[in-house]
Each structure stands twice: as C-alpha cells, then as structure tokens.
Amino acid sequence: MKTPTKSRRRPGAISPNSVPSVPPWFNLRSQPRGSGGNKTTEARRSRRESKDGIGKLVELLMRRSRRGGGLFFITGTDTGVGKTWLTCALLVEFRRRGISAAGFKPICCGDREDAQRLWKLSGGGLTLDMVNPIHLRHPVAPVAQKCPSWSTLLRKIRGALFEIRKRNIRIVLVEGAGGLLCPIARKHTMRDLAKALGGPMVIVARDRLGVLNHTLLTLEAAGRQGCIALVLTRFGKTKDSSQQSNAKVLRSRVSVSIHEVGIRG
Ligand SMILES: [Mg+2]
Fold first, then answer.
1. CA of 75 to the centre of ligand 1 (A)
2. What are phi and psi of 245, to 5 degrees?
C-alpha cells in the first residue's frame, strides 16, 4: 500500500488541486473549421481541436519545464492578439491537471485588468502587486510616459518574481505588454526583459491577413532566446479567407510548434 507523501507546500501556496472557477468573460472553445454539421459532430470536433490547441500546448510546456525552470514568456505580434486570453486558458488547463501555475504580468499600462485576470486564476497566496509589480497610468508604451528606469524596473520585476517562485509554483507564465519590441525604457524593449527573465517564448498572433509578415518578423526578433510555440488565435465568428492557408504557410517556413485556438466573441 502506498504511504501518502508529505506535502512540501508552503502555507498560503496555491493548491495544485484547487481548480479556479472560470470567470464569465472566459469562454474557451476550439474553432470549428467550415460550417454546418450537427451539434454532436461539432461538439466532437470542438473537443478534438481543443486538445490540439491548448491541451497540446500545455503538454509541450510541461516537457520543456523539466529542462528549464518552468518559466515561459508569452509575447505577441501586436497588442490585442490574445496574450491574456491564452495565458488564462493555460492557467486553467494547468490547474485542471493538478499542476500549480501562476500568471505574471510585469508591466501594465492603463488599467490593470489583465493582471487582475491572471491573479484570479493564479489562486491564493499571491497579491496583485506580486502578479503585477509595475502599473503605469496611461495605456501607451512605458517609454512614452513617466516610467522607472531600466534598472529600477528590473529590480522590482525580479523582486516580485522571486516572491512568486518562493511559493513552490511549478509553472510561471509571464505575459509581456504589447509586442516583442515594445520600448519599455530609454534603451530597452520587451525583448530585453524576456532575455533578463529567461525562459523560452510563446508567440501569440491573430490569425488574419497580415499574420505571416507579423509572425515572421517577431520570430526573427525573438532570435536566439527562441520561441517554442506559436499560437494562432481566432476571435468570434470573424472569417478571413487567409485563415485557410496561414497555418499551412507558417508550418512550411518555420520549425516551431504551431497551435490554432478559437476565442468565442
Ligand atoms: Mg493582454
């Protein structure tokens, strides 16, 4: 008979077994291809494609986390492409599988909504200031407003990350602000922050006309730190004829793992 292993979790740490309740705005589904089909067929296809999207991405991150420190940097080809949505979806899926995971939004510009969403899904033990150590007033790039220097930014961000990691959390998903080359200090961009924090990148791109160029540019900018996965997001029922070929073209040009997910509008 197996003897129960003693928990090494610190008091206040996230319980890997407590799956957070999904907030009303969060509505994950896979994107059905084409139209038609009865409800059962669509539900079956939806489940299968959901596994292909978020499920396979979680499995990939788990494999990588054994080699690295379990930290992943989620960036995008632009703002508003679904970074927060993806990060939340991953947090829910990790915790559904009993794996402790936390979101981290180092810099918020304007409101703090993204950080609050990640915070709620990261469960107890963390404060909003740990999940989001830098909150700037205006919804513009950090460098375009009153913002701490690079060294102060980095010190505060590393301090908050240290507090999160102390809580025995296995996976930390860092969500960048804006795109990868968004300037965050006089001589630094989000890419420098990604490099300073370490961990491979996941790039999020919106599956629409123009995504090929945006994605290839971002992959080039990611450079040696490397991107382990590319996630193409589709919002609501918006159709774009380029969606038929975007993933295929990207697969023929880059070796990175590509995941397609739909977001119900
Ligand atoms: Mg966001």
1. 9
2. -120, -10
**Nearest by Cα to 81 from 224, 261, 201:** 261
48-263, which class in CATH? Answer: alpha beta
Residues of the chain with pLDDT under 70: 1-52, 123-124, 264-265
- The Cα–Cα gap between 129 and 127 comes to 5
pLDDT tens-place string over residues 115-131: 999 999 996 689 999 99
Whether 105 sits among the annotated catalytic residues: the reply is: yes
CA 36 to ligand 1 center in whole angstroms: 32
Q: 62-66: which pairs have CB atoms within 8 A and are 24 or more residues apart?
A: 62/99, 64/200, 64/228, 65/170, 65/171
From 105, 146, 187, 195, active-site residue: 105
What is the radius of gyration, based on Cα positions, of the chain? 18
Q: Which two tokens stand for residue 9?
A: 């979790």
User: Ligand 1 centre and the CA of 132: distance in Å?
Assistant: 12
Q: What share of the chain is helix, strand, coil (3-state, %, to 5)?
A: 40, 20, 40
Q: How far apart are CA 166 and CA 171, in angstroms?
A: 12
**Helices marked H in 99-200 — which ranges?**
113-121, 128-131, 150-165, 190-197
